[in-house]
Amino acid sequence: MSKVVILGAGVSGLTSAVALLQAGYKDVTVIGQYIPGDMTTEYTSPWAGASVLSFASAMDKRLIEIDTDTHKVFKYLANNVPESSVQHCPGIQFYDTDDEPNEDNTWVRQLYSNFEIIPKSSLPAGAKSGYTFDSYTLSVPKYLKWLVGRITSLGGRVLRDHRVGSLQEVVDRYQCDIVINCTGLGAAQLNDVRDSNMHTIRGQTVLVDAPHIKKQYYRDAGDVMAYIIPRGDGTVICGGTYDKTNKDLNADPAIAKGILERCYDLCPEVAYNKGVEGYKIISHNVGFRPGRHGGIRLERETRVDAVRGKKYTVVHNYGHSSHGYQSSWGSAERIVKLVKMDTLMAKL
């Protein structure tokens, strides 16, 4: 059986490892400069909300299929695996930009349960449309820890490694047949990838203590957004930003103030109905999402080991932007199919 090394220990890499191990691959190792438990702006996954939604437009059939497959797994986890921290969570979505609900923002009626359009008479001031729905949320620290536990229980490994400069370096060091590239923003830096389509998307949020919040809230006003995501552990993520130009690693107090004001307008209960001063703030957070022009890169290629002259397989799984969790399982299922395709071709 092939030896598989997954480069990148974010949610995409960890989920890919679980999927490959469950598919019967025995020798699977995840390596990363950062692993679950680390908190740095260079490591995207710990900063997520994370809600289980879909950011696919009605025209993006590929992402719709990926997110739909992912949603099925999260449904199973919510119903059967409480230790994963995934839980059912009702939600409400408002749009300030569309005059009427349209296919682009309501195709998710196929995905969410209990989907209902909100009558115009019930919308808050300034909102043009909206809907209620049921989906899932999770506690990111617990979920990442659960993924690591799942990998090790299936016989895989998660290892900290220093910064890797190339895919060839992975092959040299680990003597593997297959490399799964889940490096996110790192795909732009690897010497033998250099993906110029990658770009940062800065996200700033505020983590607050609000165990009474049991619903997720979203309000989309184009360039400005507000969201409130309960993690199920008593904490709530208030956000947020989607900034492709700001590179500041530190939380901006002015941005934080705007986030807290918008979230209070959306749901005063998150600050105990005491105004913006009523928030019980735990931390201010900044993370950089791995944006990619052209969307997720999911493809297989064959390369030649420069040292030994042997062929090896590279399968790419990166560029998930702000939907790493939402597309994680669907992408991992496709990684398994690409790896199996390579195994089949090798036998011909």
TrEMBL record:
Cross-referenced PANTHER family: D-AMINO ACID OXIDASE, D-ASPARTATE OXIDASE
Family according to the record: Belongs to the DAMOX/DASOX family.
Cofactors: FAD
Keyword Cell inner membrane: no
Signal peptide: 1-17
Cited InterPro entries: D-amino_acid_oxidase_CS (IPR006181), DAO (IPR023209), FAD-dep_OxRdtase (IPR006076)
Ranges of residues in domain FAD dependent oxidoreductase: 3-337
Family annotation (SUPFAM superfamilies): FAD-linked reductases, C-terminal domain (SSF54373), Nucleotide-binding domain (SSF51971)
Binding site for D-dopa: R289
Superkingdom, taxonomy of origin: Eukaryota
GO cellular component: cytoplasm
Pfam families: DAO
Key words of the record: FAD, Flavoprotein, Oxidoreductase, Signal
Protein name, per record: FAD dependent oxidoreductase domain-containing protein
A GO BP entry: D-amino acid catabolic process
Listed GO MF terms: D-amino-acid oxidase activity; FAD binding
Binding sites annotated in the UniProt record for FAD: T44, S45, V164, T183
